[in-house]
């Protein structure tokens, strides 16, 4: 063993040097060289830092540097995140996205272009004018639709979501608000009142007839029977024959 190599190292080093830091790492740790000014120091980490990717070998696990335009990578040729100013596409960092794709400044990736999609039109609304459906001959009717897919930055814009057209209706007068209902209510009350009046009159008539009938029966019971006058023709007056 070199005189400068120590076996009792700290920070995950298996062997180390006072001048160069870690020379080898404990199992499962990654060895990486960090630059401090003009000097490189070996360190042992549980995972590789940003800009590096890990490789495992039987004798040592190392962190290798990613490409210059890559911030994090899986291997040297497959980037997982690009540095500022580049867009990720299929593991590569590009300054400009290929045809048919667009740059997403939020994720810094090249994504597919999404066009706007709208639903089917609704049925036409009733013909109206100034919010009314009566009192006019010419008005407007409207139909609408909804946006079901909003477009991306380079996608086709969304179409109009409403349409209006002229319409013709049969002219009719408008009833004043609440007048029709009020008239129906008044008619109903009047009808009920008339029925009640007729019912009261009929009841009074029946009571009067019953009272008259009872009065006649009482009179017949209380008055004596009249004697029948004799028939003058059957019983003629006696004739005086004295003369």
TrEMBL record:
SMART domains: FU, TSP1. Interacts with the extracellular domain of FZD8 and LRP6. It however does not form a ternary complex with FZD8 and LRP6. Interacts with WNT1. Binds heparin. Interacts with LGR4, LGR5 and LGR6. The keyword Glycoprotein applies. Residues 116-170 form the Spondin-like TSP1 domain. GO terms for molecular function: heparin binding; signaling receptor binding. Residues 175-219 have a biased composition (Basic and acidic residues). It is found in: Secreted. The keyword Signal applies. Residues 11-110 form the R-spondin Fu-CRD domain. GO terms for cellular component: extracellular region. One of its GO terms (biological process) is positive regulation of non-canonical Wnt signaling pathway. The lineage of its organism: Eukaryota, Metazoa, Chordata, Craniata, Vertebrata. Activator of the canonical Wnt signaling pathway by acting as a ligand for LGR4-6 receptors, which acts as a key regulator of angiogenesis. Upon binding to LGR4-6 (LGR4, LGR5 or LGR6), LGR4-6 associate with phosphorylated LRP6 and frizzled receptors that are activated by extracellular Wnt receptors, triggering the canonical Wnt signaling pathway to increase expression of target genes. Also regulates the canonical Wnt/beta-catenin-dependent pathway and non-canonical Wnt signaling by acting as an inhibitor of ZNRF3, an important regulator of the Wnt signaling pathway. Pfam families: Furin-like_2 (PF15913), TSP1_spondin (PF19028). Belongs to the R-spondin family. Keywords: Disulfide bond, Glycoprotein, Heparin-binding, Repeat, Secreted, Sensory transduction, Signal, Wnt signaling pathway. It comes from the Eukaryota. This is R-spondin-3. Residues 169-243 are annotated as: Disordered.
């Amino acid at each position: 063993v070199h005189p400068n190599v120590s076996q009792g190292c700290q920070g995950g080093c298996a062997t180390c040097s006072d001048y160069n830091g870690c020379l080898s790492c404990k199992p499962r740790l990654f060895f990486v060289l960090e630059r401090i000014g003009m000097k490189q120091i070996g360190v042992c980490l549980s995972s590789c830092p940003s800009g590096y990717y890990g490789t495992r070998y039987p004798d040592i696990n190392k962190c290798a540097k990613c490409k210059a335009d890559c911030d994090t990578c899986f291997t040297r040729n497959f980037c997982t995140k690009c540095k500022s100013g580049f867009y990720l596409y299929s593991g590569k960092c590009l300054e400009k996205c290929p045809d048919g794709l667009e740059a997403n400044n939020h994720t810094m990736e090249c994504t597919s272009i999404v066009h706007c999609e709208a639903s089917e039109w609704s049925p036409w609304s009733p013909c109206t004018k100034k919010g009314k459906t009566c009192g006019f001959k010419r008005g407007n009717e409207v139909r609408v639709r909804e946006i079901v897919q909003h477009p991306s930055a380079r996608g086709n814009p969304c179409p109009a979501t409403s349409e209006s057209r002229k319409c013709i209706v049969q002219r009719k007068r408008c009833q004043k608000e609440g007048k029709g209902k009020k008239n129906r209510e008044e008619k109903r009350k009047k009808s009920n009142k008339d029925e009640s009046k007729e019912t009261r009159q009929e009841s009074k008539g029946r009571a009067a007839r019953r009272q008259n009938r009872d009065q006649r029966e009482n009179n017949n019971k209380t008055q004596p029977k009249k004697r029948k006058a004799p028939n003058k023709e059957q019983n003629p007056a006696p004739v005086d024959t004295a003369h």
